[in-house]
Write a structure and sequence with these properties.
With 573 residues, the chain is an alpha+beta fold. The protein contains 15 helices and 21 strands. It folds into three domains: 199 residues, Sandwich (Tumour Suppressor Smad4); 98 residues, Phosphorylase Kinase, domain 1 (2-Layer Sandwich), CATH 3.30.200; 176 residues, Transferase(Phosphotransferase) domain 1 (Transferase(Phosphotransferase), domain 1). The structure holds zinc ion (ZN). This is Protein kinase domain-containing protein.
């Protein structure tokens, strides 16, 4: 399904001129040989010196139809860009990344695509930055004029997404750029700066892009031998927001042979011991987690309510509840038909939803590296989440350390900033639990009579028990009885004696883990406890400190934060 939107009268003239056989190209004999091309220094003012030994080629942006082939050949003859290489079968720009670099330079991980400064600007001496992937011959020529009808000075950029590390294409023009089969359901995706979508993830090994009549292929070239080195390099230098962990453990930077998608998510890896698959949003490159749900007649209403509730927290991470980004169903509809059509809802059996991707939860968190104040801050954030649910008259019903997730910081950050705050949230369980599995997180009264329990008080117990995992590792599969309750109390005593736990916090924990449910405070009462005061003051001071540093940095380097300045007004836009 390719939209036919680029056929115009001017395009036909261009075709005639550019589709001349190769022998008729202007000045074919003045071309330097490819060998000379490769060693010529770049004449571009802000280009990065290319050191062959320290770079690794990851992709090639090559011509894929006759119009594009002729275009690149003219450019090779007239401008000789150093990364434009050709042999008897193909011609294209090589995209490489440095194999090691001491100071991660954003420019080394992004490439600008475009026609470059217009002849008028060049004549006035006003051109400042040339595209890395130049798609227009220099000077005032018929072919240059023809190209500029479709391709702007800086038309698009390709860069690594700073969080997921996937390659993202972004348009800077309102002239359409088409990523063939790049949208949901493998439809063609039209990128348009002024339209709904202006970025997309290049998710195939070979990606076809059309700028007007010119068709190019961006092909990933990383060999198996190089893959681990490239992954390590991207882990190291992309400044991803996974706080120093390695996103390659969760995501695939380089596309595989047959990329699998589900709605708007390119699926990457099944996360072991969970029902979660990691992936990235095909438009934004944002890392997400996808979960599949089986809907039964009994669970339908419960699940529907929970999903709709979680959708409300999509852009409100400060509420402490994990929000759902998108939900869709097996009928390729989003929101799922279960949400809207009463008569169709019974046939909607398989549902999917996406959430922000978290590498850590309270069970697998490396707690030893986390200081006391930060731990307490995370506990507080999850308490805020539970209080929010209780305020909405919703009982969680199944809080475990695995339901308390640590999300990467929510603010976009420059590539070099590694000290990023994380945010703890509580994730709702979508399916109703008939019978809980024995665990320290199940309040003792549940085993006595599940039917008459006070849901919010059971939640308070479960939250406190889940926090315990930051200090100790309780045995799995135990039921809390009078005897095991004694052991639990003794464990708390030991933690205080050893100085691992603040006494005021331990007192709070004991209240939450009271044997009798009516002795446990409500979430509102818990939030009012003075234990949190010092924690919140400390968190605020860190936040203020960061803000101050950011401001200082911006004042020191006023030019760095600016966006790429476009070279000339886009007359056709
Ligand atoms: Zn459906």
């Amino acid at each position: 399904m390719r939209p036919h939107i680029l056929q115009n009268g001017d395009g036909d003239c261009v075709n005639l001129q550019l589709l001349l056989p190769l022998g008729f190209l202007p000045q074919p004999f003045s071309c330097p040989s490819p060998a000379t091309l490769m060693t010529q220094p770049t004449t571009v003012s802000d280009a990065i010196p290319i050191d062959v030994t320290s770079n690794i080629e990851i992709a090639v942006f090559s011509a894929d139809n006759e119009a594009a082939i002729h275009l690149l050949e003219i450019i090779q003859c007239k401008s000789s860009p150093p990364t434009l290489k050709s042999d008897e079968n193909s011609i294209g720009y090589q995209l490489s990344i440095p194999l090691s670099c001491d100071s991660p330079d954003a420019r080394r991980f992004r490439w600008r695509i475009g026609a470059g400064a217009s002849p008028a600007l060049v004549e006035k001496g006003l051109c400042c930055c040339e595209p890395d992937i130049l798609l227009c011959p220099p000077g005032r020529t018929p072919s240059s004029a023809a190209v500029r009808r479709f391709i702007k000075d800086i038309h698009a950029t390709i860069h690594f997404h700073p969080e997921s590390g996937v390659l993202l294409l972004k348009t800077h023009s309102s002239r359409p750029l088409i990523y063939e089969q790049g949208d949901v359901d493998n439809d063609d995706l039209i990128l348009d700066m002024l339209g709904k979508v202006n970025t997309c993830v290049l998710r195939r090994q070979r990606n076809f892009l059309r700028f007007g009549q010119y068709r190019f292929a961006l092909e990933f070239l990383v060999k198996d031998d190089d893959l681990s080195r490239v992954k390590a390099q991207l882990d190291e230098n992309l400044g991803c927001r996974f706080n120093g962990s390695r996103p390659s453990q969760l995501l695939n930077f380089i596309p595989m042979q047959h990329p699998e998608t589900s709605w708007n998510v390119w699926l990457h890896q099944k996360i072991p011991n969970t029902s979660i698959t990691s992936g990235v949003n095909i438009h934004t490159g944002q890392p997400v987690a996808v979960k599949k749900l089986q809907i039964t007649a009994r669970s339908r209403q419960h699940t529907l309510h929970r999903l709709q509730l979680a959708c409300q927290y999509k852009s409100r991470p400060d509420k402490g509840v994990l929000g759902i980004i998108d939900a869709w169903c097996e009928h390729k509809t989003s929101p799922p038909c279960l949400f809207s059509e009463a008569e169709a809802s019974h046939r909607c059996r398989r549902l999917f939803y996406s959430m922000p991707l978290a590498e850590h939860h309270f069970l697998n968190m490396p707690w030893k590296k986390i200081d006391t104040n930060t731990r307490l801050l995370y506990f507080h954030q999850t308490l805020v989440g539970l209080a929010e649910l209780h305020r909405q008259d919703v009982t969680h019903g199944n809080i475990l350390p695995e339901s308390l997730l640590l999300l990467p910081g929510t603010k976009p950050t420059p590539m070099t900033d590694r000290s990023l705050p994380r945010k703890a949230v509580i994730s709702l369980s979508m399916q109703r639990l008939d019978k809980p599995n024995p665990s320290v997180c199940v309040a003792p009264e549940v085993w006595r009579n599940q039917k008459t329990v006070d849901g919010p008080k059971v939640d308070v117990w479960a939250l406190a028990a889940s926090w315990l995992f930051a200090f100790v590792r309780p045995p799995s599969g135990i039921k809390i009885t009078k005897a095991s309750y004694q052991t639990l109390q003794k464990t708390l005593d030991t933690q205080i004696e050893k100085g691992f736990m603040k006494e005021s916090f331990a007192a709070l924990l004991r209240q939450m883990l009271a044997w009798e449910p009516h002795d446990r405070p409500s979430t509102t009462e818990l939030l009012a406890d003075t234990t949190w005061e010092s924690v919140l003051v400390h968190a605020q001071s860190i936040e203020d400190n960061k803000k101050r540093k950011r401001m200082e940095k911006m004042q020191r380097t006023p030019s760095q934060g600016r966006r790429v300045r476009l070279l000339s007004p886009d007359v056709n836009d």
